[in-house]
Structure formats: C-alpha cells, structure tokens
Amino acid sequence: MKTKTTLIISLLIIALVFVSGWLVYSQMPGPVITHWNAQGQPDGYSSKTTAMVLMPLMMLFTSALLFGVPLIDPLRKNVESFRGIYNQTILVVNGFLLVVHVVSLAWNMGWRININVVMLVAVGLMLFLLGRLMSHARRNYFFGIRTPWTLSSDLVWEKTHRFGGKVFQVACGALLLGALIPDAAFAVIMLVVLGSALVPVVYSYVVWRQIEQQVGQ
C-alpha cells in the first residue's frame, strides 16, 4: 500500500471518529464514561467536549509519529523496502483506536456491550495482524523487535521476526479463548501481551548466541 493512500485513509478514519462523536454529542450524558476497570465496570469520566476531541487528537498524534519516524531512521532504506507492510500497520493501529472509540460511544448511548470481550477480541486481532506484518519487516530502529542482538545482525533480525510473528498469532488465539472468561480479561491481556513481547526478546538472544558460537568454531 502506498504511503499517500495510507495517509488519506488514516485521515478519513480520524475524520470519521471526530464526526461520529459530534453527531451523537447531544445524545451523550454528561459527564461521559471514558474508562472501565478490570471487571468491565465504568470507573473514569470526562466532560463531553474532552471525550469527543481526545481520541481524534490521540489518533492524529499517533499517525504523525508513525509517518514521521521512518524519515529520521538511519536505516530508512530498509524501511522503504517493506513500506507497504509498514503502512498497513499504521492502518491497523488506527483501526484499533476506531473500535475503542465506537465502543465507548455505544456504551455511553446505552448499549451495554461487554467491554472486556470487545477488548480481548480487538487486541487479539491487532496482534494477529501485527504478527503477519512483522514477519516482513527488515532491520530498523523504530519498528519491530529491537534488541541489541536483532539490531546487530540481519540474520538474527529475520529469524526473530519470523518467530515473533508466529508468537503474536498464537497470542491472538489465546486472547480469543480468553473472551470466554471476560471477568479475567485484564489479567489475560497483560499475561498474553507481556509474554508475546518477552518470548521473542529471549529468542533473539538465543539465536545470536548460536550464530556467535558457529562463527567461533
């Protein structure tokens, strides 16, 4: 996917978030629920105006950051080699934030959606897509599993990201199964996300050590 196309779609998603909020502004209670606890019960509130502008601003900042970092990456040429995949990642992130916004609006309008189930499924699908995208990434300083060992070797980077992509996809399955026990959503998300982040880091060191030993023989 071309960068210009990704930028246009991202701006359209952000505009959709902004417009949808203001279209239902008059139907929203005051204050608006903006946070839920581990049991899926509301425990945080904001004014209607703050709630309506917070997510679009967050998405604008996140998108600007994701579009901007490749421009200052010393390995920019590597990023350009998988730029289509990187651009898809930007849309995945914006899509996730769009889901969060829509669910928040729906809850405040009286739709008692199970927030925990939605978050488990949404985070799971995002991890699945990020895992697929990650397996195509080449060495850079901003995107992917960046450890001293992956950044020091293209081979370690490639092996780690192929492995990490599979780990993320398995994590997706774990989160989808976790949707069957929504009361434990927070614990499941934390355990799975931390595990899927830590396992590839350890793997990158193991691969690096194996390569070093082979070179030393």
Any chance you could write out the topology, listing elements then pairs?
Blueprint: H1 3-23, E1 32-36, E2 42-46, H2 48-72, H3 76-81, H4 83-108, H5 115-134, H6 148-152, H7 154-178, H8 185-216
Antiparallel strand pairs: 1-2
What would your notes on this structure say?
Keywords: Membrane, Transmembrane, Transmembrane helix. Residues 12-60 form the DUF1648 domain. It comes from Ornatilinea apprima. The chain crosses the membrane at residues 50-72, 84-107, 113-131, 163-181, 187-208. It is a single chain. With 217 residues, the chain is mainly alpha-helical. It folds into two domains: 1-113, no CATH class; 114-217, no CATH class. The chain contains eight helices and two strands; from the N terminus they run αββααααααα. The chain has helices at 3-23, 48-72, 76-81, 83-108, 115-134, 148-152, 154-178, 185-216, and strands at residues 32-36, 42-46. The protein has a two-stranded antiparallel sheet with strand order 1-2. It is globular and about 70 Å long. The model has no long low-confidence stretch (mean pLDDT 89).
Largest sheet properties: 2 strands, antiparallel
Helix content: over 70%
Alpha-carbon distance between the two ends? 44 Å
Low-confidence stretches: none
Oligomeric assembly: single chain
| Number of distinct helices | 8
Please state how the strands of the largest beta sheet are arranged side by side: 1-2
Q: What's the overall average pLDDT, rounded?
A: 89
H and E order:
HEEHHHHHHH
InterPro entries: DUF1648 (IPR012867), SdpI (IPR026272), SdpI/YhfL (IPR025962)
Keywords: Membrane, Transmembrane, Transmembrane helix
Protein name: DUF1648 domain-containing protein
Organism: Ornatilinea apprima
